[in-house]
Amino acid sequence: MNFHKQIKNLFNDKQVRENAIIKYTETSNSMIDEINSANPDVVLDLGCGNNIYKGKIKNLVGVDILDNNLQDVYAPIEDLPFDDNYADFVLALGSINFGDDTLIDKQLSELKRVSKPNAKVFFRVLAEHDMEPYYPWTLDKILEKTKKHNFYCVDMPKYIHRTTRSYKEHDDRTGNRSMQRLFCVWRVNK
Predict the structure, then answer these.
(1) Tally of domains in the chain
(2) What is the CATH number of the domain that holds 96?
(3) Most exposed residue of 1, 66, 71, 185, measured as fewest CB within 10 angstroms of its CB?
(4) SS3 annotation, the chain
């Protein structure tokens, strides 16, 4: 099965939930406040899913491959239709989370390409697991990718926890994932 099709099968039918942004209380509100206080020209939400930050973050452009018509731009993260140095902030919240090292590196390179120098990247991934097609992120792997792509850790990688689960059908389809995630904030060095 085509990789993008596999991801779509996992997430296409995910319900839109009004309280979705509060499932990561350790990071969501402070991230929104920080971004909005900077009055950005462009914020890219890569892998926006149901585009839950739309209307909550200024000048947000949601990008995804899902067939839910909630994204602003339909594109894969490894092939973004934006100019170099386009975004002031980038969200990659659970989206650079699938595939092998080659795909992850291609997506991170593309994220860096479209980011302005010194742009901030809010990065969250599924922590330490062995489920397909998820990438097996660990603290060490985040630090390895930080160095490889010449990012600077503004906030070092740390474990955070979801406060709520998804609904049962979604959890069953996506593998009953752990409530634990890894989160960091990068600054893009160019």
Answers:
(1) 1
(2) 3.40.50.150
(3) 1
(4) CCHHHHHHHHHCCCCCCCCHHHHHCCCHHHHHHHHHHCCCCCEEEECCCCCCCECCECCEEEEECCCCCCCCEECCHHHCCCCCCCEEEEEEECCCCECCHHHHHHHHHHHHHHEEEEEEEEEEEECCCCCCCECCCCHHHHHHHHHHCCEEEEEEEEEEECCCCCCHHHHHHHCCCCCEEEEEEEEECC
pLDDT digits (tens, 9 = 90+) for 60-92: 999 999 888 999 999 999 999 999 999 999 999
pTM confidence score:
0.90
Query: Which CA distances in Å does 65 have to 4, 11, 180?
Result: 7, 10, 25
Q: Chain-centre distance of CA 125, in angstroms? A: 7
> Residues in the chain with pLDDT < 70?
1, 8, 10-20, 22, 128-130, 163-179
Q: Which domain holds residue 184?
A: 3-188
Residue 111 and residue 45 in contact, taking contact as beta carbons nearer than 8 Å: no
Cα separation, 82 vs 174, whole angstroms: 30
